[in-house]
């Protein structure tokens, strides 16, 4: 009769289940971090409204105020539903900067300039932080995965995945800027606006997809919150045991003397 030999790893079914769980967790975390479909709508809609109205009437004031109004409405809806405000508020501030800048210069194209400069700065931030060994995407997603900065020293495979993802974000955003900034100088407001709207979602989805690919293949995150909770529970148990031992000791000593 043959005896069962020890297995070197999990069964194929268990491994597939673990891989599926890892991908599901990664998808959920990316959806939370980047706002999902609703976040994309809140990012695109104000700019789309601006360029659509300006294409029709060529009026900077009405186009800018309409974009600002819709961004405020989106934020109010978030507030009424008690949802997270970070995506809607970032849209409000971005639109407000564009409105103020365009009104100050009187050039409708300047409505887009603050967002373009922000995108360029973000592209550089992704690349510089990766070179520095602290990839920005890891700083963004670490708290979402409940791993904080544990990936820097305790999970090298995950750090490598964050570095690849940060390079992807940086290069994609930089390529986007390489298209938009020449158009800022050469194209008119409506041409720049429609190209900018067209480049809002596809580069973003590509970067998110590559991030998902890199992280789905990486080691799982280390849940530092669970570790801290376990350490606290162990410390409480140790204190309780010491207190119980201290209460028993005098009684045992008294019996011994009698």
TrEMBL record:
Alphabetical keyword list: Membrane, Transmembrane, Transmembrane helix
Spans through the membrane: 39-56, 62-80, 87-104, 124-145, 166-186, 192-215
Annotated Pfam families: DUF3159
Cited InterPro entries: UCP010219
Region annotation (Disordered) ranges: 1-22, 236-258
Entry keyword Membrane: yes
Coiled-coil positions: none
Keyword S-adenosyl-L-methionine: no
Name under which the protein is recorded: DUF3159 domain-containing protein
């Amino acid at each position: 009769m043959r005896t069962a030999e020890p297995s070197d790893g999990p069964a194929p079914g268990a491994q597939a289940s673990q891989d599926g769980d890892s991908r599901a967790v990664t998808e959920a975390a990316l959806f939370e971090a980047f706002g999902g479909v609703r976040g994309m709508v809140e990012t695109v809609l104000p700019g789309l409204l601006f360029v659509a109205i300006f294409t029709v009437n060529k009026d900077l004031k009405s186009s800018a105020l309409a974009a600002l109004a819709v961004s405020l409405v989106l934020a109010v809806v978030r507030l009424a539903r008690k949802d997270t405000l970070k995506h809607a508020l970032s849209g409000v501030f971005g639109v407000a900067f564009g409105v103020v800048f365009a009104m100050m210069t009187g050039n409708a194209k300047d409505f887009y300039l603050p967002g373009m400069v922000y995108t360029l700065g973000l592209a550089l931030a992704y690349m510089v932080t990766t070179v520095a060994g602290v990839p920005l995407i890891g700083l963004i997603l670490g708290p979402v995965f409940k791993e904080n900065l544990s990936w820097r020293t305790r999970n090298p495979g995950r750090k490598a995945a964050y570095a690849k993802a940060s390079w992807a974000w940086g290069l994609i955003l930089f390529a986007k800027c390489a298209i938009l900034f020449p158009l800022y100088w050469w194209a008119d407001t409506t041409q720049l606006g429609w190209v900018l709207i067209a480049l809002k979602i596809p580069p973003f989805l590509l970067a998110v997809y590559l991030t998902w690919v890199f992280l789905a293949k990486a080691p799982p995150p280390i849940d530092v919150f669970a570790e801290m909770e376990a350490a606290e529970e162990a410390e409480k148990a140790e204190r309780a045991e010491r207190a119980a031992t201290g209460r028993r000791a005098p009684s045992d000593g008294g019996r011994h003397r009698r």
